[in-house]
Prior knowledge:
Arc Repressor Mutant, subunit A, 4 helices, single chain
Amino acid sequence: MGRAIGPVFAFSFIMSRIIRLNGREAAVLKSIGFGLGVTGQELQERMQMAHEDLSDVLNTLLDIGYVETTTMRERVSLEDYLAETFELNPSYVADLKEALKKSWG
């Protein structure tokens, strides 16, 4: 709740982001995992998606900010995403864990 500090009240709120993921986004995030990251080549092998589709999902997650590349690129192309390493943005890890828990039951 709050505590009085003179005439001012201080409130502590824990703000949680509401994250909505489609099935492909959730699957890619789960494949990246919460560890050290994964290369695009490893993702391609795990996901068995068309290169264009995986590149599109990765760019969406990069745009939103849920995923980062180790080289801090904002977008990846079809030609170079296989060599890139992807990891979850530490700022979103707790919220992504909660969203994935809800989406995967």
